[in-house]
Write a structure and sequence with these properties.
This protein is about 45% helix and about 20% strand. The protein is of the alpha/beta class and about 375 residues long. The protein has two domains: about 170 residues, Rossmann fold, CATH 3.40.50; about 190 residues, Up-down Bundle (Dehydroquinate synthase-like, alpha domain). It binds nicotinamide-adenine-dinucleotide, ligand LNCXM5UN and zinc ion. Ligand LNCXM5UN binds next to loops. Keywords: Amino-acid biosynthesis, Aromatic amino acid biosynthesis, Cobalt, Cytoplasm, Lyase, Metal-binding, NAD, Nucleotide-binding, Zinc.
Length: about 375
């Protein structure tokens, strides 16, 4: 895999189809992504950690355009409505017209917020995802879910707004801290756990290589996960059905992230713990076998991911946060559970008592 021959995976959505390019040196491959910019204006949204590392590489490709950058402070807490307003003010300052393009350079926080800002400006302009975390490459940059958090919960405000292209330059992963890298692996495991048992078995077989950040294993894991997600999104762009499966572990995980005020668990870490809680709930409801839970836990541990609810969390508070999850209907919890590895399903009307039992057990195990 190199700059001249990246892996290309198309997200097929008719006239709004777009390529996901995965390879080395892609931020500097200006000829490739510059063709995606239609107008005269571009706003690069990044953050104070990523911009010093990679903004210059992107800036060289914007020569001749009216462009500027807007940098967020680092962290999930900055995926906020207030920052959307600031990005929109930056677009206004640039004089951005409807053919302008927002470029999201960073992890999922930058991508979600920049994408939502692009969806709002003049009722929707182009944006390009340039993911620089593993999590953003395998998940958040693909599929067009954009949005921000509210104090009441994660991603409560947002829009489906697809990017024009995704430029995943895997060279950027060399500077990614190990904890962030591992958090990205959780979303890879999730894809396999939902609907691809052979991929799950491949992850088990390559867990040591992935934990050691072996280049070939990482590149293959990225491509396999993106191919899987692109297929789901193409079949169900706005989550009327199948796409909800991509939320495995998220009802619990989002509650854990929010309860910790984004200072305790990273998103991917919340998903790791959340998947395990979903597996235990599946077991409790008689849907799945304990062996599958154990297999999931072993893989997460091998990849260096947390598997326990952090100390000090309260089951009732977590349940209250779960009640605001977007999948719920008619005041009832709707969760993604599984029958076995690779066979997840949407389960409505889950009794709160069962969820609480799983939470209590996890918080104070016997
Ligand atoms: N839209 C979706 O479909 C979707 C999917 C999954 C997650 N998400 C969202 O994505 C967010 C999590 O994304 P994330 O895990 O990328 O977190 P993040 O955006 O906070 O990035 C993680 C950390 O890595 C730093 N960083 C980024 N790239 C770097 C690099 N190359 N080198 C060094 N440091 C780098 C960032 O500054 C940050 O400190 C959450 O808000 C989550 O809700 C959205
Ligand atoms: O793309 C999707 O669909 C997902 O659910 C991917 C998730 O990994 C991601 O965290 C997403 O942001 C969650 O969305 P939400 O609808 O639960 O807010
Ligand atoms: Zn996620």
């Amino acid at each position: 895999m190199n700059a001249s021959s990246p892996t290309t995976i198309d997200v097929t959505l008719g006239a709004r189809s777009y390529p996901v390019w995965i390879g080395r040196g892609l931020l500097g491959d200006h000829a490739r992504w510059r063709t995606m910019l239609r107008g005269r204006h571009a706003l690069v949204v990044s953050n104070t950690t990523v911009a010093p590392l990679y903004l210059e590489r992107v800036a060289q490709g914007l020569d001749g355009l009216d462009w500027s950058s807007f940098l967020l402070d680092d962290g999930e807490a900055h995926k906020s409505f207030a920052n959307v307003e600031r990005v929109l003010a930056a677009l206004a300052g640039l004089g951005a017209t409807r053919d302008a393009c927002v470029i999201a350079l960073g992890g999922g926080v930058v991508g979600d917020l920049a994408g939502f800002s692009a969806a709002c400006w003049m009722r929707g302009i182009d944006f390009i995802q340039m993911p620089t975390t593993l999590l953003a490459m395998v998940d958040s940059s693909v599929g067009g879910k954009t949005g921000v958090n509210l104090p009441a919960g994660k991603n409560l405000v947002g829009a489906f707004h697809q990017p024009r292209a995704v430029v995943a330059d895997i060279d950027t992963l060399t500077t990614l801290p190990v904890r962030e890298y591992r958090a990205g692996l959780a979303e890879v495991v999730k894809g396999a756990a939902i609907g691809d048992e052979p991929f799950f078995a491949w992850l088990e077989a390559h867990a040591d290589a992935l934990a050691a950040r072996d280049d070939d294993a990482v590149a293959e894991a990225i491509a396999r996960k993106v191919r899987y997600k692109a297929g789901v999104v193409a079949r169900d762009e706005t989550e009327q059905g199948e796409r909800a499966l991509l939320n495995l572990g998220h009802t619990f995980g989002h509650a854990l992230e929010t309860a910790g005020r984004y200072a305790t668990l990273l998103h991917g870490e919340g998903v790791a713990v959340g998947m395990l809680l979903a597996a235990r709930l599946s077991e409790r409801l008689g849907m799945a076998a304990a062996d599958d839970t154990a297999r999931l836990q072993r893989l997460l541990e091998k990849l260096g991911l947390p598997v326990a609810v952090p100390a000090g969390m309260d089951a009732q508070q977590l349940l209250a946060l779960m009640r605001l999850d977007k999948k719920n209907t008619a005041g009832k919890l709707r969760l993604i559970l599984w029958r076995s590895i690779g066979e997840a399903e949407i389960v409505g009307g889950v009794a709160e008592a069962q969820v609480l039992a799983v939470l209590h057990e996890a918080i104070a195990p016997r």
